[in-house]
Amino acid sequence: MSDQYLKESVERMDKAIASLSHEFASVRTGRASGSLLDKITIDYYGVSTPLLQIASISAPEAQLLVISPYDRSAIGAIEKAILTSDLGLNPSNDGAVIRVPFPPLTEERRRDLVKLCKGYSEDARVVIRNIRRDANEHFKHSEKEHEISQDDLRRLETEAQKITDSHIAQIDDMMKRKEQEILEV
Known about the structure:
Strand content: 5-15%
Oligomer: single chain
Shape: elongated
């Protein structure tokens, strides 16, 4: 039963890593990427709708995104949503598509983005450590209830620590790659 709990803990840690990866994808680098617009929602006929559901996004150049709405009447709402987002982008439309140029990042803005990513990675580390703590508490409770032996308790705690260390190392590696990507000119 406790081995099953250990497997569930690994799954929860993997989900934390996937969440961090998603957060990193939404952080702007020097290149245009459609994933930057994942969090943008548009008021479409009174319903808050994700941009990806009402338009296709392409990146024909490294510094340009082109948004093609499926319904041209939504162009104004899409443009307004991008302008009011915290991405610092300035879209323009020609009546059929919206072009979003990506100006080069300043050195100061790059440093701010690295700080933001470090915050995301620290949050993920905290989540991983909390999952380990929950697992260890579960194991200690199982040992008190005489469901597992003291040897099993030590083995499970050691295993949980190894799993935690590997996930923390994965987070550190992801952060290192994202930092290089952001600082790359």
